[in-house]
Amino acid sequence: MYSFERLFRLHSGKEHLRKKRIVVPHSTEDEELSELLKLYKGNKIRTTKYSLLSFLPKNLFEQLHRFANVYFIFLAALNFVPVVEAFQPEISLIPIILVLSVTAVKDIWEDYCRFKVDHLINRLLCHVYCSTQKTYVDKCWMDVRVGDFVRLSCNEIIPADMLLLYSSDPRGVCYIETANLDGETNLKQREVVSGLPLQGVEFTPESFCSRIECENPKNDLSRFRGYIEHSSGVRIGLQSSNLLLRSCTIRNTETVIGIVVYAGHETKAMMNNSGPRYKRSQLEKRLNMDILWCVVLLIIMCLSAAIGHGLWLKNLNDPVFQVDDETSPALAGFYVFWTMIIVLQVLIPISLYVSIEVVKLGQIYFIHNDLALYNEQLDSRIQCRALNITEDLGQIQYLFSDKTGTLTENKMVFRRCSIYGVEYPHEENGKNQYYCSYALKFMYLCWCHIFNILNNSVIRSEVVPDPQLVRKLKLLCSPVVHLSDCSSGNTSTLELSYITDFFLALAICNTVVVSSPSQSPHEASEIRTPLKSLEEIKQMFQRFSFAPFSALTSHSPPQIKDSPQSRASRLFTREETGSLTFSTPPKNSTDRSDTGQESKREAGVENLNREMDSDAESPDEAALVHAAQAYCCTLRCRTAESLLVDLPGLGSLAVPLLHILPFDSNRKRMSVVVRHPLTGQVVVYTKGADSVIMDLAETPKGAEHAQEIYSHIREQTQKHLDSYAREGLRTLCIAKKVPLLEEYDVWLKDQLLAESSIENREELLLASAERLETNLTLLGTTGIVDRLQEEVPETIETLQRAGIKVWVLTGDKQETAINIAYACKLLHANDQLLTANCGSKVSGCTILKLEVQCGEGSMTDLTARVESSLGSVAGFILVIDGRTLNWALQEELKSNFLELTCRCKAVICCRSTPLQKSQVVQLIRDQLGVMTLAVGDGANDVSMIQVADVGIGISGQEGMQAVMSSDFAISRFKHLSKLLLVHGHWCYSRLANMILYFIYKNVMYVNLLFWYQFFCGFSGSVMTNSWVLIFFNLIFTSIPPLIYGILDQDTPADTLMEQPELYQAVYVPNMFWITVLDAFYQSLVCFFVPYFAFAGSDVGELSFGSPINTSALLIILLHQVIESKTLTWIHILVLVLSGSSYFGFVLLFSVLCVTCSPPTNPLGVETLQMSQPLFYIICILTIVMALLPRYTQTHILAYSDPNSHTYNVQTNPSVAEVVS
């Protein structure tokens, strides 16, 4: 029994859980905290939907969400009412029980597969600390709880979200691979919580007495807020770099220990596991309307029967058979209405929904196994993540594509750079390594030998150093260089300072993790290559009146007034602090031991260089780091507190790392704050988008000459940026800042406060970063080339010919996007470019209105889409930047923007944010009512992929976030053409035809029963036994449509690829009524031919119904043969088995059943009918008369019009008229 006090504490704990989470060791002696830990969820996961007890009620409840199931359950119950009973009540239960059972078996099989995976994961073992045994013991994942200490080794999977408390790496870091979460295989660094008194010693859980307070579980993988309060009362802020996420794998670290803060379904991995995506296709939505019309037809037929029965009874005089005289004609008509509802129930296709699911699974199987969609290089095939929108692939009207990684390779190659306003074209870059000039390679190897580094990055990163830049960097190591030499030539000391800072920024302003195939990162970092001696560094500095690193001592490079002596003094000061230790060489510099030591140093560096490897979070970072390596500015090691960097002429230097301000889409830049190893000053290195950095880089205050120099640098750099953009290069600007000590101290306090904050932490960090990243000194810019993927131009041209409008939504510069658009043939030379770059909302409104007026009268939307895509007529291309797009998406300008885009052949949105991308897709989808497809490869494309009707992710170089959020995943953009034009067209055509076929066969068979009511007083009687009536649609004619929906090909794949105009298949609403009328005609023929054949005879009702049923079955099966454009042995086998099953069933039924269908007696009826020639004459005549119109329309007209397709598929009328 709980005491009142304990219940009060429990209630208080639950209230507290709503606000924040407190975590302490599970063995805590605090009773209140111990009770609080028990309120947190355990680590056992359960992704199944059902349990043994809940399966039947829950599955039945889910299936009752379908109107058709509710409808048939109602009819089955209605048939148990004696007054309206149509046939045996038990028989009416068979269809709904069969359909519910098939769906239930499918659901339970899927759930069982999930159960097996859950069971396997829950039974995995990990090492959990046991406070009673004082050691780590093996426990299943399911037994881990919040507050447990877990020890993991290299290559083990993390069982729960844990706060990192210990790492065997002496730097207090560990590396994880997040491929199971986001698909990224590059390593990510995690840090031990700072401020723990246990650093550097073996971790003992008993000594941990800190208290963790963090936010409640959230699904944001990149966000974690909280603080840890030590026993001393000191609070240390926690961030995502301290959290080890469930499902990630420990790499390159021997041992880590953490405390569990989130377990089970509260972990970020499980909160992001939403399972397969479910979307309703457009065809399924239209199907509901068709079913509604079937209900209307059913009601009309039943009302007609009810009225007819009432009139028949009213006018009946002197009946020769027994009639219920006590029931009034009106009430009898009311009863007949419900009886006819039961009799004609098959008009609503109960098995259609199940059949559609089966057909879609078959279609997905063939899409998944298409070798044309397989990427052998990546060993990757298409993934179908959404199982119910395959037909939407055949109805796309607008395609929205990202640029980088989607149209391009996202394999960056360093192409050009500009430093100090001087461009270095790197003409050999981007070419195949075998075609690079031998002289350049030889010069590069010699230059690396000068710096005691043998770097193989030419082959790895395809970066061949620019000869001019190599000559300038050689000056750092030249034995005799005087100031007069620099001032008289093209290279000044200030320029060398810019060059050195530029490559240092490339090397360290990133999140690259340095590792080795044979060594862990912390082992690699312990290899310290001896620096050049202090005397050598002093001599190098004294060769110049302005040292390369002297630029770091001021806000602006021109304000340099230090002497070489003062700089040498500072170097000695840095040595005394212990931050950096220099080895002084022997006085006799020609000693052999010195030579031997130098040789060992070179060998060590050489071996290290061959083994070192790096993992970058993006291809851009990798390209810049490799470019820095090409100039022997190499990142050797990264720790949480320092960086080991090789610099030309200086050897390896330890650079203290103070802060990393990571990249985000709002700031569009990242920065690192370091303490320079030579000057001791705090330096901020920043890289980011040119549009941002150029605004933050201000002209320094000071001498007029210095301002002229800096203005010249900015002007030249801007020219080079524009030139790079016109060439289609991705540009980044590099800048730096040396803040004053007082400024940095004030900023540091705000930064620490932001890092330790729980509420509004992201906003505070953003504001803090923006305060520091001001008054930057522009160093230069880089141009990186991103090659187009293969067959991108051909794919875009094919899609445009298919009537699909292609939009490009990118964050790149306008010039870069336009250049790529020309390269991929989205733009042609004769197209007219409309640009919208506005500085204000008023000007944006004016420009949009003017461009709409300019576009009027030039061409209609349809002509623009068809004729210009065929290359015969020029089209308008709209190019709009992010700022103008933001205004165009506002309510008052939406209509102008939409009108303008409808008149354009293509639209290119530049500098667009992820939110703007999704807003554009949503605007077009909702306002124009068109089918949209979005394709992208990165996390910034996830929002538009999820908003579009069909989202396609490309598994590329930016992880798998886009793939995990998509409906379909491909490896190359070129696969879109076959996925849409072939598989999309087939899937849509098959399902559209199959749905109409289902409606046709149900209407056709139901009308046979309806026509019979005119000859039986509308009493609800039928001319067949109830078993055949139920099984006719449920078994005898159910399998052929499935094969038809999976295997039929209305047009060969080669033809669809060669003639993309055939893609735009439109579901024609009138075809529903054409199909219904055709079914009415065939039912009339099928009923009245036997009726007139047996007129005047004494044939019984079952004998009369025998040729009708047989003819109806053969007509329905042969109707499908006529409609099929593909006939294989599978089709023929299924058709034969369907017909055989009918004949086998009715013959056995006729021979064996005596009282199977009371009150009628089917014994001997079918055997007698099938032994008479009249039976076969009636069947043949009926089949020919019923199918002749359909055969004439489908085949004879097809010979006269070779371009015609199936009757319910219509291409765009501006391209080809295909409705026969």
Automatic annotation (TrEMBL):
InterPro entries: ATPase_P-typ_cyto_dom_N, ATPase_P-typ_P_site, ATPase_P-typ_TM_dom_sf, ATPase_P-typ_transduc_dom_A_sf, HAD-like_sf, HAD_sf, P-type_ATPase_IV, P-type_ATPase_N. Its EC number is 7.6.2.1. One of its GO terms (cellular component) is plasma membrane. It is found in: Endomembrane system; Endoplasmic reticulum membrane; Membrane. GO terms for molecular function: ATP binding; ATP hydrolysis activity; glycosylceramide flippase activity; magnesium ion binding. It catalyses: ATP + H2O + phospholipidSide 1 = ADP + phosphate + phospholipidSide 2; a beta-D-glucosyl-(1<->1')-N-acylsphing-4-enine(out) + ATP + H2O = a beta-D-glucosyl-(1<->1')-N-acylsphing-4-enine(in) + ADP + phosphate + H(+). Its cofactor is Mg(2+). This is Phospholipid-transporting ATPase. It comes from Amphiprion ocellaris.
